[in-house]
Amino acid sequence: MLKNFAKDPRPSRRRFLQGSAAAAAGLTVGFRWNGGMPKFASAAYAADGTLAANAFVRIGTDNTVTVLSKHLEMGQGVYTGLATIVAEELDADWAQIRVESAPADASLYNNLQFGPVQGTGGSSSIANSYDQLRKAGATARAMLVEAAAKDWVVDRAGITVEKGVVSHATSGRSATFGDLAGKAAGLPVPVDVTLKDPGRFTLIGTSVPRVDAKSKTDGTAQFALDVRLPGMLTAVVARPPVFGARVKSVDAAPAKAVKGVVEVVQVPSGVAVVATNFWAAAKGREALNVQWDDAGAETRGTAEIMSEYKALAEKPGMPVRSQGDTAKALAGAAKTITAAFEFPYLAHAPMEPLDCVVRLDGDRCEIWAGDQFQTIDQGNAAAASGLKPDQVRIHTLMAGGSFGRRANTVSDYIVEAIHVAKALDRGTPVKLVWTREDDIRGGRYRPMYYHTLTAGLDVQGRPVAWQHRIVGQSIIGGTPFESVMVKDGVDGTSVEGAANLPYDIPNLAVDLHTTKVGVPVLWWRAVGSTHTAYSTEVFIDEVAHAAGKDPVEFRRALLSHHPRHKAVLELAAEKAGWGTKLPEGKARGVAVHESFSTFVAQVAEITMQPDGSVKVDRVVCAVDCGRAINPDVIRAQMEGGIGFGLGGVLYGEVTLDKGEVLQSNFHDYRVLRIEEMPKVEVHIVPSTEAPTGVGEPGVPPIGPAVANAVFAATGRRVRSLPFTRDQSV
Amino acid sequence: MAVSFVLNGEPVSLDVDPEMPLLWAVREFAGLTGTKFGCGAAQCGACTVHLEGQPVRSCSTPVSSVEGQSVTTIEGISGKAAAAVQAAWQRIEVPQCGYCQSGQIMSAVALLEQTPKPTDDDINSAMSGNICRCATYVRIRSAIHAAATTMEG
Ligand code: FES
Ligand code: FES
């Protein structure tokens, strides 16, 4: 499938420019990335005075600067971050910046870390866009300067740009971007532009206000659920009670009798009830009578699956990393420590359940969604509707969270809506809504895993061997990414965070059993690190304890080759007052972990409650994400990551009995609530390294930090998640 | 059957299934989409509106039960507490994805209207029913305190 995407006919630059010209009068800078190098258009394009200097920035005669975001805004602040990079190089005034979602067009808007695919994920948005958008901003700026130089008949060298105003001191002339946009639009797009010396940054590194803060406090922010089109119908789908079952028979009559129900449609995933409004559709679904065929369905329960995983863990799996001779070193160790960890399935449960609007009209398919994987969704929508990918137009709205759920390789919710739309009159828009129950029971979970770890210490208490085995389903296996992302039978996402353990231990082995289970799985905010950070960081604490060493000191001594891990660890420990005395009943725990090239250490301070549960009072977080684009957004992502991760380890679990999911809504799939949220202090390591992402890396360390604090308080190790299930807490 | 009530100060009459939750009547029949659907089961607070000034979960309130009463949604809030809350929300940059925030704000405004100087415990009890999956809780708390301070001055 990836190959097909690569072959997609490139939508013409002309079409893009026409679209942008219609949207505003004013300059767009247009270049295309081929193998990482931009090819600039030979001439700029003038249309009603808008400067469309490239695919990412448009300057209107009304003096607005519109940045086109190729990434989905789902809360992580990417609109603000991307616009900051453009505005910095453009020397724009922050107040004149607007952000719009870019159209789905991989030839212009592919994620440079995803090859030919437009999409958002892997905390890659800022990392992959940084150079690209600096150049986009600098190009537009160069064109404005050139236009001013020509207009004023002065030397470019004497022109300065500051806060959206272009000036020439000697002649005393000045103009706004809006004044110059039309003139700049007629100029050739420069091939080479000089980027700013980062020492002169005025926006990057400051916390400019989020561009979406206002619309998200007055109810005007638009999500897919809010789309209203003339004649639009709403669909809900009855899906089978066990994964892999199919419709055997349907009695649609009782559903059709519900006022407002228009149509009952059998789709590959189940039976859709289509109505003039949501409530009628939901009532119709309740009235439906569907018989399911369970042949080939997954009918095991999670307890059963976990026992199979435990049996598998007795035997070696596929080698992932091997250095030294771990077996020999363990045999010769003065002391060995061993532990096993259990991780449940987890639902993403984004606040906005899955939803989208689809309109099929002859050779056109239009989709409105909080779309996270535009190119994949175009391909799957095309296949489902019998069209070509470039006939699929996606309007990307903001998403009410995702945590990975909206980026799935089969485009489940979009394809489902297309199948419904196919059964309706041509051109009828249909909104597909998943309820919370559909979301919790609908699969694509963080996989269940079982880990075993064994470590050996020498007589001085130094770790000499580390053996780590992981058992669980592959997220990537069976998807179009398999050929690129599964190497030698190992799905990198199953072992990330374990395979690259940073600790300096001479004999180290990691292996993997990939299991086949009929429960659909998916990446969940921080992916592999959601379980590997837990097992490795709790276990290293156990090893430190067995060696009689302080947990921070023990880690530090093993991180001499990983200075960035070490630096965040030291910073978090220092700011948390590691080693100072705490009042009775309180304790601290620490964890450090790198994910998506961002380094995070957290110290959790807890109080054990009389009922044996744990209250997390305070978390001190140190983060190194390279150059900080917007420190306040980074802080927000660390706070949010900590709350999201904490809810996951304390309460999160999806369990199955005879193949049926037992949870259904927030009363039994508990998530963190305000009274459970700790105080959070975030410290950002000053850095001039390339910027990396912050959407996910705040999540992994919180679980092990809290577990290690529980150990410090009680001497008990939580090795089976969630905490509410573990007998020891 | 038409249900009549006052929505954001204007009388409305909606011809809907009387069992229909107020949430869907407001969103799909009155066209006000600021109020969100998160769980449909009074578990998450995304659908919070004010009924006669009190916060209620509109997903679990049949529209017929509000006949003759006054309903306020995020689009219609006004007054000292509302202004202070919305300003604090923006200044402190509470929202991430933003999807829960209409409900958070409706609960926070109702809290401050009754308890102008809430303690952390007051905030916990008033806001516990509002889930934020982005976990913006630290900022929700500080924005409520900040709004309370603004209201004093
Ligand atoms: S949607 Fe009403 S409480 Fe969740
Ligand atoms: S801001 Fe995303 S759910 Fe609250």
Automatic annotation (TrEMBL), chain A:
Q: Which GO terms describe its molecular function?
A: oxidoreductase activity
Q: Which residues form the Aldehyde oxidase/xanthine dehydrogenase a/b hammerhead domain?
A: 218-296
Q: Which domain of life is it from?
A: Bacteria
**What InterPro entries does the record point to?**
Ald_Oxase/Xan_DH_a/b (IPR000674), AldOxase/xan_DH_MoCoBD1 (IPR008274), AldOxase/xan_DH_MoCoBD2 (IPR046867), AldOxase/xan_DH_Mopterin-bd_sf (IPR037165), N-heterocyclic_Hydroxylase (IPR052516), OxRdtase_Mopterin-bd_su_IorB (IPR012368), TAT_signal (IPR006311), TAT_signal_bac_arc (IPR019546)
What Gene3D superfamilies does this protein map onto?
Aldehyde oxidase/xanthine dehydrogenase, a/b hammerhead, Aldehyde oxidase/xanthine dehydrogenase, molybdopterin binding domain
What NCBIfam families is this protein classified in?
Answer: TAT_signal_seq
Recorded protein name is: Oxidoreductase subunit beta
Q: What is the lineage of its organism?
A: Bacteria, Pseudomonadati, Pseudomonadota, Alphaproteobacteria, Rhodospirillales
TrEMBL record, chain B:
Q: Name one Pfam family in it.
A: Fer2
- What name does UniProt use for this protein? Oxidoreductase subunit alpha
Molecular function (GO) terms listed? 2 iron, 2 sulfur cluster binding; metal ion binding; oxidoreductase activity
Carries keyword Nucleotidyltransferase? no
Q: Which InterPro entries match?
A: 2Fe-2S-bd (IPR002888), 2Fe-2S-bd_dom_sf (IPR036884), 2Fe-2S_ferredoxin-like_sf (IPR036010), 2Fe-2S_ferredoxin-type (IPR001041), 2Fe2S_fd_BS (IPR006058), Beta-grasp_dom_sf (IPR012675), Diverse_Oxidoreductases (IPR051452)
Q: Which keywords belong to this entry?
A: 2Fe-2S, Iron, Iron-sulfur, Metal-binding, Oxidoreductase
Gene3D superfamilies assigned: 3.10.20.30, [2Fe-2S]-binding domain (1.10.150.120)
| Keyword Plastid among UniProt keywords | no
Domain 2Fe-2S ferredoxin-type: where?
Answer: 1-77
